[in-house]
């Protein structure tokens, strides 16, 4: 055993941390999180963690750099407090889209973030639906990349018949195909041409969508440009209804306005990132909880049980 189980929350998504504790029958370990007048972050773990198995819950979402720095400071504090094992639970891994060099003098930011976390004291990572699975190889330590699929599939099973899973671009085809296979649904792909970062133009549909309920699958909704263009094209091709479904509701910039204006009947996401109340006012967004999934993963890691059972 790795000592007593301790759960610590960063400031990014405390409601998720509390829900995880509820599932585990545990309580959050108190942690002081303050800012000095010059903007520096002050962290202090306010309970004994010597010899404990500690899990720090902190998605690196907006404000990304603040939440990331806070996480690193918490990891360092735990390392210096002699925790037996330190696991970072990062439901949403920021910088994941910068996983390779896209121009001659560009950084590989996702790799640098991995190095920072490792040096700070992280000994294991739990995350959900990494944007690029190969990011696991950026770490020389165990990475459990679990999937929100069980939660999303359970929600989609109650939907109407004649369902078609749609990938909004060619890169997401494998994800949409996996969902289609589990649901016994059809598969379609929207051909997309990206003109500039955060701008996308959907051009054509590969597959039969006329008269169908189309579920547009993606790992995240950021500015919602891609997924809204896909919805528009699907309706033009005769879709009966269009539902958006994604794990990570980044929802930056004009995302909410675009989703409200798009022909979606519903937008299904999870709480890997916090969704403020003002972003729920359009009435289309349904948030599912991943707390139970993360709690099971934390329990299995703590008890040295198999994590792969969560992938069934």
From TrEMBL:
The active site is at residue 192. Pfam families: Pribosyl_synth, Pribosyltran_N. Pathway: Metabolic intermediate biosynthesis; 5-phospho-alpha-D-ribose 1-diphosphate biosynthesis; 5-phospho-alpha-D-ribose 1-diphosphate from D-ribose 5-phosphate (route I): step 1/1. This is Ribose-phosphate pyrophosphokinase. Belongs to the ribose-phosphate pyrophosphokinase family. Class I subfamily. GO terms for cellular component: cytoplasm; ribose phosphate diphosphokinase complex. Its main location: cytoplasm. It comes from the Bacteria. The gene is prs. It catalyses: D-ribose 5-phosphate + ATP = 5-phospho-alpha-D-ribose 1-diphosphate + AMP + H(+). It comes from Desulfovibrio gilichinskyi. Gene3D superfamilies: 3.40.50.2020. Involved in the biosynthesis of the central metabolite phospho-alpha-D-ribosyl-1-pyrophosphate (PRPP) via the transfer of pyrophosphoryl group from ATP to 1-hydroxyl of ribose-5-phosphate (Rib-5-P). Residues 5-121 form the Ribose-phosphate pyrophosphokinase N-terminal domain. D-ribose 5-phosphate binds at residues 194, 218, 222-226. Keywords: ATP-binding, Cytoplasm, Kinase, Magnesium, Metal-binding, Nucleotide biosynthesis, Nucleotide-binding, Transferase. One of its GO terms (biological process) is 5-phosphoribose 1-diphosphate biosynthetic process. GO terms for molecular function: ATP binding; kinase activity; magnesium ion binding; ribose phosphate diphosphokinase activity. It is found in: Cytoplasm. Homohexamer. Its EC number is 2.7.6.1.
């Amino acid at each position: 055993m790795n000592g007593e189980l301790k759960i610590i929350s960063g400031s990014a998504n405390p409601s998720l941390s509390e829900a995880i504790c509820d599932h585990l029958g545990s309580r959050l370990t108190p942690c002081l999180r303050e800012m000095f007048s010059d903007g520096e972050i002050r962290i202090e773990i306010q309970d004994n963690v010597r010899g404990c198995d500690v899990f720090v819950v902190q998605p690196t979402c907006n404000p990304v750099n603040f939440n990331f720095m806070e996480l690193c400071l918490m990891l360092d504090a735990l390392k210096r407090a002699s925790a037996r094992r330190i696991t970072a639970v990062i439901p949403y891994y920021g910088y994941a889209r910068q996983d390779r060099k896209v121009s001659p003098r560009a950084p590989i930011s996702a790799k640098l973030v991995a190095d920072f976390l490792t040096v700070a004291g992280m000994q294991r990572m739990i995350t959900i639906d990494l944007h690029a699975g190969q990011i696991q190889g950026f770490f020389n330590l165990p990475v459990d990349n679990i999937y929100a699929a069980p939660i999303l599939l359970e929600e989609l099973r109650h939907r109407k018949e004649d369902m078609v899973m749609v990938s909004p671009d060619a890169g997401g085809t494998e994800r949409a195909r996996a969902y289609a296979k589990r649901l016994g649904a059809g598969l379609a792909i929207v051909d997309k041409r990206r003109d500039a970062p955060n701008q996308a133009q959907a051009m054509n549909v590969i597959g039969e969508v006329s008269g169908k309920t189309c579920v547009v699958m993606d790992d995240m909704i950021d500015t919602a440009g891609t997924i809204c263009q896909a919805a528009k094209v699907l309706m033009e091709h005769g879709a009966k209804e269009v539902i958006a479904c994604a794990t990570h509701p980044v929802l930056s910039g004009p995302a909410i306005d675009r989703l409200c204006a798009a022909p979606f009947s519903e937008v299904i996401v999870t709480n890997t990132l916090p969704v403020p109340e003002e972003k729920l006012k359009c009435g289309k967004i349904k948030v599912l909880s991943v707390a139970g999934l993360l709690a099971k993963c934390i329990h299995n890691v703590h008890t040295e049980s198999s994590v792969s059972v969560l992938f069934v």
